[in-house]
TrEMBL record:
Pfam families to which the protein is assigned, alphabetical: BPD_transp_1
InterPro entries: AA_ABC_transptr_permease_3TM (IPR010065), ArtM/GltK/GlnP/TcyL/YhdX-like (IPR043429), MetI-like (IPR000515), MetI-like_sf (IPR035906)
Keyword set, alphabetical order: Amino-acid transport, Cell membrane, Membrane, Transmembrane, Transmembrane helix, Transport
Molecular function GO terms recorded: transmembrane transporter activity
Membrane topology: Multi-pass membrane protein
Annotated source species: Halomonas binhaiensis
Protein name (database record): Amino acid ABC transporter permease
Lineage of source species: Bacteria, Pseudomonadati, Pseudomonadota, Gammaproteobacteria, Oceanospirillales
């Protein structure tokens, strides 16, 4: 019995055609469902007299925000409120990622230390902070620690320049002077030159095996060039010192306690997970690699930095990316202590005043999605660039 050619098989009996029809029906059903939900929402909003659209972003907000990275005058709009909340979210997220990474790597390496006491302390840190809910830790730092600090008149001070009290941390504010531009240009040149030297040193080592003192040369350039510009141009910065006037400090920079509590909680909590990621990544490296490095006389610190960590990063980076994304999304818990992040001032106060729930929540969700995708893309790029290529 001969099998008829494909061109003679009826169209409805072809698997590819049936699969296409099924996918088309599913897509049509999904579009119909979304259309019905949108129409239903618009009908309900119209019946309640709630207008839709994004025109509310140009309306006056009518409330103040305790911490802003840009000017927020009294006539600011809801659009500017969104920008202020977004910048505050990015600020605490960036600070948390840096601090959590440093603490996490330090604790993760300490967990594998031959020093019994250091390893046990690191293990206790992980088990304690990993198993306490993040919201509870935020409330602990805010109410039990920072709200127990003295009033501004009895502030804890460091050299009469830095003050810590119940209203936050007050530090001197830098004021650019005439030589600031030259010093900044020198620092930029030094950083670019250090990166170029590091790339050259790596390629030279790959070709010849000769190692150059990258860290020492880079540090000398980053410190030396701005210092030379400082000597030539004079002081690039002056400092506005905080002064106690009445019941609070005037001048300087004030880091509000809400930011401090959120930063501490996010950093310490996320670092406990990063520590375990680092530990597992290091332990995934075959022990023969360490034994081989010891056999050729490499010191322990160089073995860790040049042999173990580069191979462990293939295990560390994907999990590290997830923790970074969790930290960014967990920053939305700031609303529990009143830190003016995107959720608090835009998806909270602005939503209550305007009633534009769909638009505001959609914008907020889109912002967190965009930030997460950007971080994921950067970490994937970093992982691809640093991945050890097999010969």
């Amino acid at each position: 019995m001969s099998i008829p050619p494909a061109s003679h098989v009826p169209l409805w009996r072809r698997p590819a055609f049936r699969a296409l029809i099924i996918q088309a029906l599913l897509l049509a059903g999904l579009v119909a469902l979304i259309t019905m939900m949108v129409n239903n929402a618009l009908t309900n909003l119209d019946e309640r007299g709630i207008t839709t659209g994004f025109a509310f972003l140009n309306e006056r907000a009518g409330f103040s925000i305790p911490q802003t990275l840009i000017d927020f005058p009294g006539n600011s709009t809801y659009g500017r409120t969104f920008i202020v909340g977004l910048l505050n979210t990015l600020l605490v997220s960036a600070m948390g990622i840096v601090a959590a990474t440093i603490i996490g790597f330090a604790v993760g390496i300490a967990r594998l230390s031959p020093n019994w006491l250091l390893a046990r302390l690191a293990a206790a840190y992980v088990e304690i902070f990993r198993n306490i809910p993040l919201l509870v830790q935020i409330l602990f730092w805010y109410f039990a620690v920072l709200q127990a600090l003295p009033s501004p008149r009895q502030s804890l001070s460091l050299m009469e320049a830095v003050f810590l009290n119940v209203r936050g941390l007050v530090v001197p504010a830098p004021v650019p002077e005439t030589g600031f531009g030259l010093t900044l240009a020198a620092l930029t040149v030094a950083v670019v030159a250090s990166i170029a030297f590091a790339i050259y040193a790596r390629r030279l080592q790959e070709r010849t095996g000769k190692a150059l003192p990258v860290y020492w040369v880079g540090t000398a350039m980053i410190v030396g060039l701005p210092l030379l510009a400082f000597v030539i141009s004079g002081s690039p910065l002056s400092w506005e010192m905080p002064e106690l006037k009445g019941f609070n400090f005037r001048g300087g920079i004030t880091i509000i306690p809400e930011l401090m509590a959120l930063w501490l909680a996010l950093s310490i909590y996320t670092a406990s997970f990063i520590a375990e990621i680092v530990r597992s990544g290091i332990q995934s490296v075959p022990s023969g690699q360490v034994e081989a490095s010891r056999a050729i006389g490499l010191p322990a610190n160089i073995t860790l930095r040049k042999v173990v960590i580069p191979q462990a990063m293939r295990v560390i980076v994907p999990q590290l990316t997830s923790q970074y994304l969790n930290l960014i999304k967990n920053s939305s818990l700031a609303t529990a202590i009143g830190y003016p992040d995107l959720v608090a001032v835009f998806a909270g106060t602005s939503l209550n005043q305007t009633g534009q729930a769909i638009e505001i929540i959609a914008i907020t969700m889109a912002v967190y999605l965009t930030i997460s995708l950007v971080v994921s893309a950067f970490m994937n790029f970093y992982n691809a660039r640093t991945l050890i290529k097999e010969r």
